[in-house]
Design a protein that fits this description.
By secondary structure, the chain is α+β, with helices and mostly antiparallel strands. It is built from 17 helices and 11 strands. The relative contact order is 0.16.
Length: 421
């Protein structure tokens, strides 16, 4: 598959870019789109504005009530959903080819004319707060939040509020806050829309211009450059949550690399070999050989958009095995750090990653997800064509060098959440 040849890229309206990918799927179209305006663009006084605004888009518009919107979609077997990520307001839709124009009309209507009804907002806030209250007992979520809060300062883009802080922020938001945020943030300027399936580019462009053509332009601030993570320091954070049958542990630290830097892919592969899947070192040793955990793994994350991110190893252990589990995990990490990866491991993981990439393109959803994410990061479509070559070009010695250069086992943050014994 060559994305450059497969994808039709157009700019039908200033501030809107479309990506159309005809596939062999019959009669069905998948749509995915986004624009800047995620949680990092929320009002400074309340970081939950974007999340609540996005969640309210399908709760009624100036033209249709919530029930009317639901009925129109159900009657044609279509779906539309909205969500806010850290940087973007995202939407996805599924429909029959014959209903494409109506679905694009409804997407535009919900993006452009939401009413943010006070009664619907009250129900949404109650549900979100209820979910957050439940998550106070989620050992994995609590451990991760505590880990993030130790790695980054409060004004870093990767920082996470505590659950209590999130609940407090949600309680403060009112309908006028959402209307003000919507008026300023929603509009043309950074809008990307991708569509794949049984689709005609001409038909798609006609609908886009018809329903998005006279929309206003966004008025959002540039986020600016990232700030450094906290200075690396060895620290252990232990949070007791009563009556838990397992404890979750995060071990890791900040890394001063970005996704577009030369060393990111090297470090990503090294960490993937350590704990990226069931055949990685941590699973083979800590779970399969020693039987200390049901789940353990490593990843690198938070390095997009020019930011310095972090890497971590996560594991879940019985409360009476936490210390033993941590020691075993650290032993595997130490050996990996000091001795490096092997040619055999690298060859196997190259095959796995390239295979996963190709499999993800077998569905229209996976295909446009790759295209949209690529567009959000400002990359040319050829970046996707070059992906497999970039993975194949990875070199064992360069990976081992990157691990030694960017990681430091003496300054790990360890976060534990669960019942302390």
């Amino acid at each position: 598959m060559k994305f450059k040849k497969l994808v039709t890229l157009e700019k039908p309206i200033q501030g809107l870019t479309s990506y159309v990918v005809p596939t062999k799927v019959k009669d069905v179209v998948t749509i995915s789109g986004s624009m800047l305006g995620g949680t990092l663009y929320s009002d400074k006084e309340n970081p939950k504005t974007s999340s609540l605004a996005s969640a309210m888009l399908d709760k009624g518009t100036q033209k249709n009530s919530k029930s009317d919107l639901s009925y129109k979609l159900e009657s044609i077997g279509a779906e539309i959903s909205f969500i806010s990520s850290s940087r973007h307001i995202n939407f996805t839709a599924y429909c029959l080819k014959s209903d494409l124009d109506l679905v694009i009309e409804l997407i535009a209507e919900q993006l452009r004319y939401p009413i943010f009804a006070q009664d619907e907002l009250a129900l949404l806030k109650k549900r979100m707060i209820g979910n957050l209250e439940i998550s106070k007992d989620d050992t994995k979520k609590q451990s991760l939040i505590n880990f993030i809060r130790k790695v980054y300062p409060e004004n870093h883009f990767n920082y996470r509020p505590s659950i209590e802080e999130s609940i407090h922020s949600i309680r403060l938001v009112n309908s006028n806050d959402l209307k003000s945020f919507h008026e300023k943030t929603f509009g043309l300027g950074s809008l990307n829309i991708a569509a794949a399936g049984d689709i005609s580019n001409a038909q798609f462009q006609d609908s886009i211009q018809k329903y998005f053509g006279n929309w206003n332009t966004q008025n959002i601030n540039t986020l600016g450059t990232t700030i450094p993570a906290n200075k690396r320091t060895q620290i252990t954070e232990n949070m007791n949550i009563d009556d838990k049958t397992s404890s979750d542990v995060y071990i890791g630290q900040s890394v001063n690399v970005t996704e577009d830097g030369d060393d990111y892919r090297k470090l990503m592969m090294g960490i993937y070999i350590l704990g990226g899947n069931f055949s990685a070192r941590l699973m083979q040793s800590v779970r399969d050989e020693q039987g200390l955990t049901y789940g353990i793994g490593s990843t690198i994350t938070g390095c997009g958009y020019g930011m310095n991110g972090h890497w971590h190893t996560w594991g879940t252990f019985s409360p009476n095995l936490v210390d033993k589990g941590i020691n075993s995990t650290l032993n595997v990490i130490d050996k990996w750090f000091n001795e490096g990866i092997t040619e055999k491991e690298l060859a196997a993981k190259k095959t796995t990653l390239i295979g996963s990439f190709k499999v993800s393109l077998d569905t229209t959803g996976g295909l446009i997800d790759k295209i949209l994410t690529n567009a959000e990061k400002g990359r040319d479509i050829t970046y996707l064509d070059d992906y497999t070559n970039k993975i194949n070009d990875l070199n064992k010695d360069e990976i081992n060098s990157a691990i030694k250069q960017h990681l430091d086992p003496k300054t790990f943050v360890t976060s534990i959440a669960g019942t302390i014994i």
